Structures are given as structure tokens and as C-alpha cells.
Amino acid sequence: EIGLGKTIEAILTILMLKNRGAKRFLVLVPKILIDQWITELRKFLPETQIFKLHRENLDYLCTPNAPEGVYVISIDTAKKDRNARKIKRVKWDCVIVDEAHNLGGKSKRDNFVRNLDAEHKIFLSATPHRGD
């Protein structure tokens, strides 16, 4: 359902996982939703480091010893080979994919998400399942 509160539910899941010891979260979103996600994350997780990833800061933020926090990036920026290699250096406790209906099949987005090392993956969508 559109407007059901998927973003808020995902943020509450982050909080629950943090309480269980999770430290690093990657949120993959369409570019147009980055600022909205960051606003909501700051509202509900005010004591958590929130990082807005872009190609200029991937080198020093995405390392095996990445700082604890929530990292938000456009999925289209993240899937690019040079960026994907840097993002994959991090052992993510949880990856959240917003607008997950854009995954599936043999797409570069799908391949990127499937190959991320994460204990938990959460897929959010208000669009009906396409069967793949």
C-alpha cells in the first residue's frame, strides 16, 4: 500500500536490529528519495550517524572498518562497477532496498543487491509482485 508507512517500519526495524547489536546499515533508494529517507532517519534515529553516500566519499567511508551508522545511497549510483566494488568492501548488518519492484531478472541492480554481503536484507515496495 502506498502511504502505509514502509519507511517508518524499516526505520523501526533498524532500531530493533541496532538493539540486537547490528552496526552498519545500507539503504538503497531511488535518487529522488534520498533526502526524504535522511530526514526520516534523523527524526527517528537522532543519535545514529547518518551518511549520505556518493561517489566522492565512497573511498573513505566504505572500508572494512566503516564507521557505525546508516548509509543512504541511490541504487543507480551504487550499482556502477567502480562504486559497487567499494560498497562491497563493507560487511553490512542490514541492507534495505526501497522500491524493490525495480529488482528482478538479470538486471544490474538485481545482481548488485544479490551479491551484497549482509546478514539481513529488507525489500520495500508498494507495487505488485511481477513474478521474479
Describe the structure.
There is one protein chain. By secondary structure, the chain is α/β, with parallel strands linked by helices. It is 36% helix and 20% strand. It has six helices and five strands, in the order H-E-H-E-H-E-H-H-E-H-E. It has helices at 6-19, 34-44, 58-61, 75-78, 81-87, 108-114, and strands at residues 24-29, 50-52, 69-74, 92-97, 118-123. A five-stranded parallel β-sheet has the order 2-3-1-4-5. Helix 6 (108-114) links the parallel strand 4 and strand 5. Helix 1 crosses helix 2 (34-44). The longest helix is centred in the first third of the chain and has 14 residues, at 6-19. It is globular, with a radius of gyration of 14 Å. 25% of the residues are buried. The mean pLDDT is 86.
Write the layout of secondary structure elements.
Elements: H1 6-19, E1 24-29, H2 34-44, E2 50-52, H3 58-61, E3 69-74, H4 75-78, H5 81-87, E4 92-97, H6 108-114, E5 118-123
Helix content: 25-40%
User: Counting H and I runs of at least 4 residues, what is the number of helices?
Assistant: 6
Taking the alpha carbons of the first and last residues, their distance comes to: 20 Å
* Share of residues in strands: 15-25%
Low-confidence blocks of residues? none
Most strands sheet: 5 strands, parallel
Number of strands: 5
Classify the secondary structure makeup into a structural class. Answer: alpha/beta
**Inertia-based shape:** globular
Mean pLDDT across the residues is 86
Radius of gyration: 14 Å
Can you list the strand order of the major beta sheet?
Answer: 2-3-1-4-5
The run of helices and strands is: HEHEHEHHEHE
